[in-house]
Amino acid sequence: MTPWETRPEHRMMNILNELKSGAFADPATLPGAVAYALLFVFLAWLVGRILRLTVQRALAHDTHDLVDRTTVRFLAQLARMAVYVFAFITYAHLVPALARLSTIWLASVSIISAIIGLAAQNTLGNLIAGISLLLYRPFKVRDRLQITAPTGVETGVVENLNLGYTLLKTDDNRRVVVPNSIMASQTTISLTGDDPRAICSVPITITYDSDMDKARSVLLESAKKHPKIQQVRGCSVTQLGPYGIVLTLNAWCADAVIASEVKCDLLEQANKRFAVEGIKIPFLQTAIVLKNVLPPKF
Questions:
Q1: Which of 62, 167, 181, 194 is most buried, with most CB under 10 Å away?
Q2: Are strands 198-206 and 189-190 parallel, antiparallel or unpaired?
Q3: By C-alpha distance, which of 271, 266, 196 is closest to 227?
Q4: Do 162 and 77 form a contact (C-beta atoms < 8 A)?
Q5: ∠ CA 43-103-79 to the nearest 5 degrees?
Q6: Total domains present in the chain
Q7: 76 and 58 together in one domain
Q8: Are the C-beta atoms of residues 181 and 123 closer than 8 Å to each other?
Q9: Lowest mean per-residue pLDDT among 158-162, 167-171, 237-241, 286-290
Q10: What pLDDT score does 4 carry?
Q11: Does a structural domain hold residue 159?
């Protein structure tokens, strides 16, 4: 190779000659295949971005919740994936080198499918479960759910439902990420509905020698004075336990979050009022008996 051929001016001239000869427009050549690859990647990215921005603007203008946000976001993700798959298939048909490999691809598609199925069975399971959640719609974004997680019972609002996972935002601002396969198979309690009210149940145990009527009166009085209680249902005996009598106060609250706050308030007030009224709350006691065992006489 001569020094002139290694100079940038020479390389630029070669590129210009290839442009004039139409090499970049012919997918059968290497420059053409690279050019088409860059073009299809750019077009797929552009269409996906336009689709995502369109969905975001449509949801932003929908202030009255006329459309199902969960369905729209889920379908938008599927559409973006379809755009990339369509771009790749079209590119493969245009490039002769890739088109000649189609026979080999068809022959090995069963093997590839089996390998992908074994390697990504959890991912595919989450994807299929996500589609079933979208079709049956047991819940949607902004619904309040109660689920069973490794940390115990978790309560939160559905913040996002994508192709693989469901994201819950708890009351203490944590994010619980649950695979869709688990969300579709486990029992989920929905705390959102046409009537968002929730029952606040406050079980309190008193000793058998305490005045049960006075304890019930104290609990009902505290509940009726609480500003966040809508209606008091009553306070009945729900159990005669080994350590005392269990009184359960039931009251209607606006929603589950308020019901949890009200329960804490009523427990605190009951503890203070019971101490003043002489009502005892039982606690577990352990008695240790020491016996002086004399040694045996021979």
A1: 181
A2: unpaired
A3: 266
A4: yes
A5: 30
A6: 3
A7: yes
A8: no
A9: 286-290
A10: 41
A11: yes
Q: Residue 235: what pLDDT?
A: 92
Q: Which amino acid is at 292?
A: N
Residue 84 to residue 26: CA distance in whole angstroms: 22
CB 99 within 8 A of CB 93: yes
| Phi and psi torsions of 69, nearest 5° | -65, -35
What tokens does 219 get?
């609990």
- 250 and 233 Cβ atoms separated by less than 8 Å: yes
Closest CA to 134 of 158, 170, 113, 117: 158
* End-to-end Cα separation, the chain, in angstroms: 116
What distance in Å separates the CA atoms of residue 273 and residue 220, rounded to the nearest whole number?
A: 12
3-state secondary structure of 41: helix
pLDDT in tens, 185-220: 888 888 777 777 888 999 999 999 999 999 999 999
Strands of the 165-170 sheet, one edge to the other:
175-179, 165-170, 152-161, 144-149, 189-190
The whole domain housing 214 covers 198-277
Q: Longest C-alpha distance within the chain, in Å?
A: 122
More confident residue, 92 or 221: 221
130 and 74 Cβ atoms separated by less than 8 Å: yes
Same domain, 242 and 217: yes
The residue among 245, 208, 251, 246 whose CA lies nearest residue 232 is: 251
Distance (Å, rounded) from C-alpha 130 to C-alpha 286? Answer: 53
| Average pLDDT of every residue of the chain | 78
On whether residue 290 sits in a domain, the answer given is no
| Three-state secondary-structure class, residue 217 | helix
The secondary structure of residue 284, as a DSSP letter, is -
pLDDT at 297 over 70: no
Residue 127 belongs to a domain: no
In this structure, is residue 172 part of a structural domain?
yes
